[in-house]
Specification:
nucleotide-binding; single chain; PPS/PS_sf; two-stranded antiparallel ribbon; EC 6.3.2.36; PPS/PS; alpha/beta; ATP-binding; 12 helices; about 240 residues; Rossmann fold
Length: about 240
């Protein structure tokens, strides 16, 4: 990462790409994660590579959801682990949430590599290794979750999530917070809070909102959640992308 000059106009994009490549080399990120990153990068370019106001509002509402939750869980896949490991640990600390590894292409090797990587970045407890429960109506491998983690969570943050899983979690009645640069993908479409922003910017901003709201009462947090309009946020993101074309 030291080789990329910070004043390069595409600094953030180059940094992101580099982190994904390193993730693949370390056995953390799946090869498909490189394609996912390429798609995300194209949308981010059209968004102007910045957190648009509706995304900031979504990040604040998501922080409020996590703070109000009985049992919040942050889901980690191979791209998330490569891009924002320490930032996810900080967000978990700020909201008293669990971290759970949940992979689309699940192998024991990648689970172990990601768990080590998260611990190196300060995680004390990592879930997803037991996989002793199943999300209903999803094929075997993708359905695996921890009974005391995502399975019983009331609020889950699922960044860069596959559409089938997002729908299956929604069907379980969970409050889903989704980070995805493509506002038309199924995951943000089914999310209670769709966050159309690069995960690299979204997660630190959610943690900052959570820290700022640490002493807020339930009424204030509920007010923030009610004031957030998911349809408007999706439309604003799509509008911004169209104008970027
Ligand atoms: O590690 P695994 O096995 O769980 O696999 C993870 C990937 C991401 C490979 C898998 O879930 C997958 O194939 O996902 P999709 O269907 O490609 O969806 C990824 C979504 O994330 C796409 O809509 C991308 O636009 C979006 N995306 C990619 N990079 C970013 C992003 N959104 C926010 N920030 C990014 N940096």
């Amino acid at each position: 990462e030291e080789e990329i000059p910070e004043d390069h106009p595409r600094y953030q994009d180059l940094l992101t790409r580099h982190r994904i490549e390193t993730g693949v080399e370390k056995g953390i990120t799946h090869l498909q994660g490189m394609h996912a990153e390429g798609r995300g990068s194209a949308f981010d370019y059209l968004l102007g590579e910045e957190t648009i106001p509706s995304a900031d509002a979504a990040e604040r509402a998501a922080a409020a959801h996590l703070l109000l939750a009985d049992h919040p869980v942050l889901s980690i896949n191979g791209n998330v682990a490569a891009l924002v490991p320490g930032e996810m640990v900080d967000l978990a600390d700020a909201t008293d949430a669990d971290l759970e590894i949940n992979l689309f292409n699940r192998t024991d090797e990648r689970i172990a590599a990601i768990a080590d990587h998260l611990r190196e970045h300060g995680a004390t407890e990592v879930k997803g290794l037991e996989a002793d429960a199943r999300i209903p109506n999803l094929d075997h491998q993708r359905a695996k979750v921890d009974a005391d983690g995502i399975y019983e969570a009331d609020v889950v943050l699922v960044p860069l999530e596959d559409g089938d899983r997002a729908e299956a979690l929604e069907a379980m009645g969970k409050t889903e917070l989704v980070i995805d640069l493509n506002p038309l993908s199924r995951s943000p479409q089914v999310a209670e809070v769709p966050i159309v922003d690069n995960i690299i910017r979204a997660v630190p901003n959610m943690a900052a909102h959570a820290q700022e709201l640490a002493d807020a009462g339930e009424g204030e947090l509920e007010g923030i959640i009610e004031a957030f309009d998911r349809e408007e946020a999706l439309e604003e993101a799509e509008e911004r992308i169209r104008s970027g074309l």
